[in-house]
């Protein structure tokens, strides 16, 4: 199984880039993982919120491959502790043969088409984070999950 984090738009702030790159490097040791970036939409000022979500949704759909297992990162999704998330990932390694794809929505979230396409929704907190911030929190939690599964002294209950 390979894990992909699908996001919209480049990470703009350098401090996020550095931190995300650090966890991405650490993850190389444990599991095939990449971050796939869908370019930001242009001229969004002329679009309504619904139109922007729909257009982003079309680009997301183009990036999905047959056999992908799709998990939306969404404030209204299922909530796990870090230990539970580690066992979730472990179970997925047995059931997902191709890509386990986590998707972060754009500034206004996901279109209905994307909700319909998804297998699951996962929340990192009931609070809302910026789509840039979620990338960092997700890679850190994935790294934490890997250290838990490998009995390494990073996570403390
Ligand atoms: C700024 S948020 C958009 C939130 C907004 N409530 C909406 O859905 O219209 C951008 C994206 O970040 C992700 N996100 C933000 N907070 C999150 C959380 N607590 N857990 C999981 N994903 C989150 C989601 O993918 C969301 O679509």
TrEMBL record:
Keyword Membrane appears in the UniProt entry: no
Sites where the protein binds S-adenosyl-L-methionine: 73, 105, 124-129
GO molecular function: rRNA (pseudouridine-N3-)-methyltransferase activity
Recorded catalytic activity of this chain's protein: pseudouridine(1915) in 23S rRNA + S-adenosyl-L-methionine = N(3)-methylpseudouridine(1915) in 23S rRNA + S-adenosyl-L-homocysteine + H(+)
Record keywords, A-Z: Cytoplasm, Methyltransferase, rRNA processing, S-adenosyl-L-methionine, Transferase
Function: Specifically methylates the pseudouridine at position 1915 (m3Psi1915) in 23S rRNA.
NCBIfam families, alphabetized: PRK00103.2-4
Protein's recorded name: Ribosomal RNA large subunit methyltransferase H
Organism annotation: Dysgonomonas hofstadii
